[in-house]
């Protein structure tokens, strides 16, 4: 009888878990509000002397067009139309109230000359370039201190031609950290949609210190062996929605970050309120969704659902280390399908690159309240490699309804970790073995407040009260 009730209870809670989050959170974050899709003014890049032959360098044309359009910023904004053609350019700067619109066969090509990618200051939350001390090359498409910026079109292409950068990286002849393909910094109201991004020199799309960012219907591709070509990296940014994307690159498809060691700790700008849904992709040396390894400003309130990763090395990864400080909490990941993935869930706590020797090894990250629900995996080598830090247990890690078809003998390997589970196959490791139900549901993220406060005496009563 008791087990019958716990089963009914479990099913009720499972049903409840699946509906609340999206109804409340999803739709407001993923809709652009009050942003001008219709710009009263429009120009074409050819009006500024651009030549789409793939050879002529058009940096000046982009800069001049955008300078001209700045005069419409307070008149509803303007659209810069890029027609079919191969538009070679160096780095250029966007402005507020601008729509950059790429026609179907428009291809913006990144210059293969590093001088066309000027060097800018390192991010204060990193203290230095991510790869090398000092400055970093500015992204091909860059924006800073902006509001209401849209980069979209009829699935046109932005190709970073990153192979030269990958070669400079491999031959150790870089002078500064490699550039992103698109970086928006300290901006609010950003939409990037319906485009294809190819061959970024480094991380592809990098919103940093931004709010209200939507990335929708984009395809991001780079060779599977290209170094550090992450897809989308929300960094110290909040209210970010990423949906309906296909990503296949050389590193993490999506990586949520918030600064590096002592620099990230003192800058203290977290990434939070992040939605990821309907993401498909693969890689061979990275993960589908990563948090970290730079997470020193904190990461919280991340919701991911309807995720499909195939032929990849890792499904979901949390990367951190001694010295990072910060926190990762209130993470909810559900409906994940993994096919041909080496490690389904990985907590790597020894991601030990540091910006310099001044990090404080006693700054330990707080990792808590992470829920994985409805994960199904086929042809998986290792179900979970879940390692906390000695003296810093990761806690309230909850696994619910996970079924992985695993090919190795020891599917789970857990240490310095604490949490609960229900309906997990193959059998979960000892530290997570205690059932979520009935005693520990309130320790797991995410149950609504009224259920949490009712305790475990009134099983199911929430169903019948409003
Ligand atoms: C961010 O942008 C706003 C204007 O949009 C500006 O006032 C502020 O100083 C900027 N902060 C940084 C750190 O760039
Ligand atoms: C952005 O704002 C910061 C802080 O006010 C300022 O230092 C910087 O010059 C601004 N950058 C641009 C491109 O407007
Ligand atoms: C996205 O691009 C496709 C392909 O060109 C086009 O048919 C479609 O209308 C675009 N969607 C939006 C919302 O602009
Ligand atoms: C955009 O182009 C990419 C690459 O060619 C393609 O895979 C994708 O399906 C296209 N998306 C749309 C919305 O047409
Ligand atoms: C690095 O600097 C050297 C010396 O100025 C220069 O020859 C080389 O082209 C630079 N490398 C890159 C990738 O910019
Ligand atoms: C995989 O990525 C890691 C970290 O980015 C790098 O150190 C390693 O060399 C890469 N391996 C391959 C085979 O590309
Ligand atoms: C789960 O995600 C897949 C995509 O991977 C989607 O087709 C399916 O409809 C989702 N299921 C639910 C219940 O949302
Ligand atoms: C995934 O890998 C398997 C085995 O290597 C291969 O047969 C399959 O075609 C790959 N799937 C895709 C979609 O690339
Ligand atoms: C962490 O990694 C470093 C360097 O890769 C290694 O020396 C150290 O033993 C590792 N620590 C743990 C606890 O695994
Ligand atoms: C468990 O997850 C699978 C998908 O991974 C889903 O089809 C199934 O309905 C879930 N079971 C329960 C009891 O929610
Ligand atoms: C767990 O991992 C540790 C080191 O990563 C290894 O020494 C140990 O054998 C593993 N345990 C199992 C049961 O696989």
Architecture overview:
With 466 residues, the protein is mainly β. Helix content is 14%, strand content 41%. The chain has six helices and 28 strands. The strands form three sheets. The chain has a 22-stranded parallel β-sheet that branches. β1 (41-44), α2 (59-69) and β2 form a beta-alpha-beta unit. It is globular, with a radius of gyration of 23 Å. One 2-acetamido-2-deoxy-beta-D-glucopyranose (NAG) is lined by residues 144-145. Keywords: Glycosidase, Hydrolase, Signal. Residues 1-23 form the signal peptide.
TL;DR of this structure?
This protein is mainly β and 466 residues long. The protein has 6 helices and 28 strands.
CATH architecture of the largest domain: 3 Solenoid
**Percentage of residues in helical conformation:** 10-25%
Between the first and last Cα atoms, what is the distance in angstroms? 27 Å
The overall pLDDT, averaged over residues, is 91
The total count of helices amounts to 6
Query: Tell me, what is the CATH class of the largest domain?
Result: Mainly Beta
The number of domains: 2
Structural class: mainly beta
């Amino acid at each position: 009888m008791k087990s019958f009730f716990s089963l009914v209870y479990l099913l009720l809670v499972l049903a409840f878990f699946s509906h609340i989050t999206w109804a409340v959170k999803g739709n407001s974050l993923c809709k652009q509000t009050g942003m001008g899709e219709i710009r009263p003014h429009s120009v074409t890049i050819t009006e500024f002397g651009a030549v789409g032959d793939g050879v002529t360098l058009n940096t000046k044309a982009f800069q001049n067009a955008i300078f001209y359009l700045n005069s419409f910023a307070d008149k509803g904004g303007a659209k810069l139309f890029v027609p079919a053609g191969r538009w070679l350019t160096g780095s250029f700067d966007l402005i507020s109230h601008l729509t950059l619109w790429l026609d179907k066969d428009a291809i913006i090509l990144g210059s293969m000359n590093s001088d066309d990618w000027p060097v800018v200051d390192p991010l204060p939350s990193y203290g230095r370039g991510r790869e090398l001390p000092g400055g970093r090359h500015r992204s091909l498409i860059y924006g800073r201190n902006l509001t209401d910026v849209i980069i979209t079109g009829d699935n046109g292409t932005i190709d970073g031609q990153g192979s030269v950068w990958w070669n400079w990286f491999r031959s150790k002849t870089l002078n500064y950290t490699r550039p992103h393909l698109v970086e928006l910094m300290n901006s609010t109201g950003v939409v990037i949609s319906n485009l294809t991004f190819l061959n970024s020199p480094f991380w592809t799309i990098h919103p940093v210190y931004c709010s209200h960012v939507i990335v929708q219907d984009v395809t991001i591709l780079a060779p599977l062996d290209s170094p550090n070509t992450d897809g989308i990296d929300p960094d110290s940014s909040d209210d970010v929605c990423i949906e309906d994307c296909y990503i296949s690159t050389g590193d993490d498809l999506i990586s949520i970050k918030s600064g590096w060691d002592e620099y990230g700790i003192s800058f203290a700008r977290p990434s939070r309120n992040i939605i990821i849904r309907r993401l498909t992709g693969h890689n061979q040396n990275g993960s589908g969704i990563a948090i970290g390894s730079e997470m020193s400003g904190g990461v919280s309130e991340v919701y991911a659902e309807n995720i499909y990763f195939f032929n990849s090395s890792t499904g979901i990864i949390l990367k951190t280390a001694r010295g990072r400080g910060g926190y990762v909490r209130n993470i909810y990941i559900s409906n994940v399908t993994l096919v041909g993935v080496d490690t389904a869930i990985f907590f790597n706590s020894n991601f030990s690159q540091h910006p310099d020797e001044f990090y404080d090894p006693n700054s330990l990250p707080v990792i808590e309240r992470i829920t994985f629900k409805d994960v199904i995996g086929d042809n998986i080598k290792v179900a979970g490699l879940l390692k906390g830090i000695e003296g810093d247990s990761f806690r309230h890690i909850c696994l619910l309804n996970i079924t992985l078809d695993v090919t190795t003998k020891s599917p789970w390997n857990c240490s310095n970790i604490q949490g609960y589970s229900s309906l997990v196959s193959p059998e979960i490791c000892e530290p997570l073995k205690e059932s979520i139900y009935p005693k520990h549901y309130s320790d797991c993220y995410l149950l609504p407040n009224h259920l949490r406060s009712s305790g475990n005496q009134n099983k199911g009563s929430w169903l019948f009260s409003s």
